[in-house]
Amino acid sequence: MPNVRGCNLPDDLLYDVENHVWFSEVGDGNVKLGMTTIATALAGELVAFTPKKVGRKVRPGKSCATVESGKWVGPAKSMAGGEVVEVNTALAENPNLANADPYDNWMVIISPEDWDSVKPQLTLGSDVTSEYEAKMDADGFEGCDG
């Protein structure tokens, strides 16, 4: 598993490095999305997670959920557009589960409309190290241990 400055990035996932979101194909044409360890480290302790409701559409590049911590409120953006087919209700009830393990505690599952065009734009976990190093340098982020 790649580890960039103390931040674990499982190599079996696909990454939208710019928005700190991971994607995983769940085998039925749907895609699971979650926050990276970098997202949770930047945000701090999460206090609220409000996903779009099942059946709602997510437009490409727009929010699939709103995430709130003591120092930040903002959208979790999905590069893929589609319909929300499942939400992680456990995360909505206890948002700081994502701080403990953002890879087990996913946000939403969508049925993507444009996956074949989005997937090649994402970074494979096995190739994510250099891209995240550059993003951390650009953002002045020391890492997950600090």
Features:
single chain, alpha+beta, 146 residues, OB fold (Dihydrolipoamide Acetyltransferase, E2P), 3-stranded antiparallel β-sheet
CATH superfamily, by name, is RNA polymerase II/Efflux pump adaptor protein, barrel-sandwich hybrid domain
Tell how many strands the DSSP assignment holds.
12
Low-confidence stretches: none
CATH topology: OB fold (Dihydrolipoamide Acetyltransferase, E2P)
The tally of helices reads 5
Rg estimate, integer Å: 14 Å
Mean pLDDT: 95
- Oligomeric state: single chain
CATH architecture descriptor name: Beta Barrel
Tally the structural domains.
1
Shape verdict:
globular
Beta-strand content bin: 35-45%
Largest sheet: 7 strands, antiparallel
Task: Please outline the helices and strands.
Elements: E1 3-4, E2 7-8, E3 14-16, E4 21-25, E5 31-35, H1 37-43, E6 46-51, E7 57-58, E8 62-69, E9 73-78, E10 82-87, H2 89-93, H3 97-100, E11 108-112, H4 115-118, E12 123-124, H5 128-139
Antiparallel strand pairs: 1-2, 3-4, 3-12, 4-5, 5-11, 6-8, 7-10, 8-9, 10-11
Structure overview:
This protein is of the alpha+beta class and 146 residues long. The protein has one domain (3-123): OB fold (Dihydrolipoamide Acetyltransferase, E2P), CATH 2.40.50.100. 22% of the residues lie in helices and 36% in strands. The protein has helices at 37-43, 89-93, 97-100, 115-118, 128-139, and strands spanning 3-4, 7-8, 14-16, 21-25, 31-35, 46-51, 57-58, 62-69, 73-78, 82-87, 108-112, 123-124. It has a seven-stranded antiparallel β-sheet. The chain is globular. The two termini are 20 Å apart. The relative contact order is 0.26.
